[in-house]
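Sample pair:
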Amino acid sequence: MLSGFVLTFPLLKNKVQLNLFSFYVKRIFRIYPAFFSAIIFCILLKYFLFDPFLILRFSPWINTFWKWNFFEISASELLNTFILIGRAFNTDLLDPVIGTLRKELIISFIFPFYLLVALRARTLINLIILFAFFFNGNNVSGMFYLGIILALNKNLILEIINKYDNYFISTFFFILGAILYKSRYSLNFLFLNYNYIISLMGSMIFLLLAMKNGLFKTILNSRIIMFFGKISYSLYLLHFPILLVVTSLFSDQVYFIFPISILATIILSYLSFKFIENPFVEIGKKIKVDKLDLFICKIFVFISNLDCKSIFNSNNSKVK
């Protein structure tokens, strides 16, 4: 949901056209360099620091990982792991977060077409499309599409929120959002197959609270939260392999596992952000594919009857 929102909002805010190939290049340079580095990091940790016998005393869950021998992994399995969007593969092989990253990447490539549909459709049609995603079990697309809808209707939503807002209402919704978000862990026996949708409602409440002025937004704008926001992708990629290795290294000193894991993850995530993520993101911004963008833009014009330069500056009140 957050990905759908943050990819859409800057385009609407700046009223710029979406250059398809430039967008893809930026996403590739945003996602793959840090991902490749994390995968290589996992392999090095597994072979030089990790001992599977030292974690046998811990949960069956953590003992399901890193049982492989690198030379026994098939070439196709390893290739699909690096490509991410290829054929289905064992996403738990190296780093279990790859499973959600794969979904994120696939949806990112579909995003421009979702956005084109959302821009052309009325609110009711967008809601029907949203419910169709969830009804058909396509929760990832549904969450992503919800983020797009929220970005398109941001001003209207904020107008409604600010009209009825006060400290007690904000506090109530903050508590409600926390309860709903955690429902898939604490109340999953009640919601059964709908627990992710209930949790999504909690996420949506947090996003709405973050958009409006108030204590929640002030906290999110603090330096410490902004810092974790910057390193969040690297932290997401690295936290599990670091936890696994630290568990192995300190298996006899359990109380050291979490503080050392947290500290090591923060430090290494910052280094990854500074020396891998950020430099490659800047490279992605500088790569020009204007001719390909123009060609695709003409196709969009043919399909949607929207001028390329005004696609995000239409008469649609949602966009203004």
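The chain has one domain: 2-165+212-310.
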